[in-house]
């Protein structure tokens, strides 16, 4: 079921502030990169706390449990951007998306802090300073590049296929190179031919590698693409259905409602681009300091740089 949050854009810089002694809990997101622009504070989780000085960068996955508290002496100003791998189906391979999904539940990868002097912190500061001078597409790609660099060799090692004639390794190697959009257009028989597997064996090893059946994975990709189109375009629902790989509007409506708990039309009314824009207008975007009664929720946005 879909949570009751706006379908927020990703690869977009947001700026906000936290009052002295107050707290902010990051909203739900696959990954969030946050930099302290000014002031000091702490990241608090369970029984531990980590100092956050000016310039420090936090990488937080959606599974991370904690919040940021500003120092009692001064407010904190921060900026951040989200990365949602599932919305990059034309850019990331299935294997790359799976690596980031697994990383989100690993404590050493899901939460990381980089000091102000680290290359990651310096690059993010430079990007923030150049946000209004760079080409918008190049800026988004550079934000994504910064995010990927954090995982470095661990991501490279995860994407290195093994030299083996085993069917499971052939499928793994194929998933390392295929983009989700391509897989979504494949039939199960086509995948079997590409990986030189019998359908029965392929069904078993696909589930072992991806944690779901081929048909469920294909539906997940198609519905994810449909949700993106509904949120960011003005295409008719029937056009979204066809573009997402569904030849029947009734089947698309049925699958979308079953997966997200709401019809495509109602989902667009609630989370689409017009709804997001209206919400931002109502959030008083010129307010620099977050009101204390909203600090446990998402902060009021000071500015949104569409990047």
Topology:
Layout: E1 13-18, E2 23-24, E3 31-38, E4 41-45, E5 48-52, E6 57-61, E7 67-70, E8 76-83, H1 94-103, H2 107-110, E9 111-114, H3 119-129, H4 136-158, H5 167-177, H6 180-184, H7 188-195, H8 199-210, H9 214-232, H10 237-243, H11 249-260, H12 264-271, H13 273-282, E10 303-305
Antiparallel strand pairs: 1-8, 1-10, 2-7, 3-6, 3-8, 4-5, 4-7, 6-9
Explain how this protein is built.
- The protein is of the alpha+beta class.
- It has helices spanning 94-103, 107-110, 119-129, 136-158, 167-177, 180-184, 188-195, 199-210, 214-232, 237-243, 249-260, 264-271, 273-282, and strands at residues 13-18, 23-24, 31-38, 41-45, 48-52, 57-61, 67-70, 76-83, 111-114, 303-305.
- It has three domains: 13-159 and 284-305, Jelly Rolls (Sandwich), CATH 2.60.120; 163-211; 219-271, Homeodomain-like (Arc Repressor Mutant, subunit A).
- Helices cover 46% and strands 16% of the residues.
- The chain has a six-stranded antiparallel β-sheet. Strands 2-7-4-5 form a four-stranded antiparallel β-sheet, with no helix packed on it.
- Helix 3 packs antiparallel against helix 4 (136-158).
- The chain starts with 12 loop residues before the first strand and ends with a strand.
């Amino acid at each position: 079921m879909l949570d009751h949050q706006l379908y927020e854009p990703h690869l977009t810089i947001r700026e906000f502030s936290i009052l002295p002694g107050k707290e902010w809990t990051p909203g739900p997101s696959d990954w969030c990169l946050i930099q302290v622009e000014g002031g000091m504070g702490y990241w608090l989780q369970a029984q531990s706390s980590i100092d956050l000085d000016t310039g420090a960068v936090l990488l937080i996955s959606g599974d991370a449990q904690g919040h940021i508290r500003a120092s009692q002496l001064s407010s904190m100003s921060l900026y951040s951007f989200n990365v949602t791998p599932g919305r990059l189906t034309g850019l990331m391979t299935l294997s790359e998306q799976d690596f980031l999904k697994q990383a989100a539940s690993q404590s050493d990868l899901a939460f990381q802090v980089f000091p102000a002097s680290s290359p990651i912190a310096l690059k993010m500061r430079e990007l923030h300073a150049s946000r209004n001078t760079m080409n918008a597409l190049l800026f988004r790609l550079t934000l994504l590049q910064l995010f990927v660099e954090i995982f470095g060799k661990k991501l490279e090692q995860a994407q290195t296929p093994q030299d083996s004639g085993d069917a499971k390794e052939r499928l793994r190697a194929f998933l390392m190179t295929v983009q989700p959009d391509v897989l979504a257009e494949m039939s199960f028989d086509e995948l079997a031919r590409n990986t030189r597997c019998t359908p029965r064996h392929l069904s078993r090893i696909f589930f072992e590698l991806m944690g779901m059946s081929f048909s469920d994975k294909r539906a997940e990709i198609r519905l994810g693409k449909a949700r993106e189109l509904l949120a960011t375009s003005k295409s008719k629902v029937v056009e979204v259905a066809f573009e997402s790989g569904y030849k029947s509007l009734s089947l698309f409506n049925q699958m979308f409602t079953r997966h997200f708990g709401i019809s495509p039309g109602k989902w667009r009314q609630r989370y689409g681009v017009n709804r997001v824009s209206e919400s931002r207008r109502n959030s008083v975007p010129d307010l620099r300091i977050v009101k204390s009664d909203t600090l446990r929720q998402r902060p009021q946005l000071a500015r949104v740089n569409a990047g």
